[in-house]
Amino acid sequence: MQIKRIDDSVFQVPIQLSESLESQRLILQETFLAAQRRLRRFAQKYNWHHHTKEPFAKLFRVHADKVSFDRSLLDICGLDTTIELPATYCAALEQGVLMSVSPELYRRIYPKGDEIDAFEKLLTHEMAHRLHIRILGGDENAMGAVWFYEGFALYAAGQFENNAPILNTAEIWEIVNDPDRGSYRRYASVFQYFVGKASIQQLTEMAAKVEFLDWLKQISG
After folding, report:
1. Domain segments of the chain: what residues?
2. Is 164 in contact with 158 (CB distance < 8 Å)?
3. Residues pairing with 15 in the sheet
4. Are 221 and 193 in contact (CB under 8 A)?
């Protein structure tokens, strides 16, 4: 099966499934298409639609178990397949392959992410990282700190938009200044906070600049 454009910025691509997931092929295909439409709406809203004209994924692969997902991801990245990945790492888009665990397994592994259209949003999140890179002209190093680029993808996917934790100012800045990977739900809160202070276009442009933190403090009052 070849890649087929079925709508503006929406593509049908080959799907590889674990044997036990074959009965879910149709629903998984529809969810993948819905994820692309979700990302298209986000891109249209912020005038980034032209960056979605080519497919982000050329293959969609869904695994019934975490072990096979981990091995597949490590293999496509050219890494040692015995490396232990984080327990909650459930999806990725590498080398044009969008891969994930099954919706049921995602729900079990990451119950904090269980919300309406959770699996659709998970797929959107991974494609949103690639949209982010296209916006930056292919410069992954300009994506900013982990809280920012994960926050961008969470915001684009609509994850936790109605149930992110309420953080005080001190908690927000603690997250911004922490170089280590942390809670995605808290990243969603922080990103939403700053989108209320400046446009997402401004934030995306400034994220990799040395004066970014000083600028954030300035716009935060």
Report:
1. 1-135, 138-221
2. no
3. 60
4. no
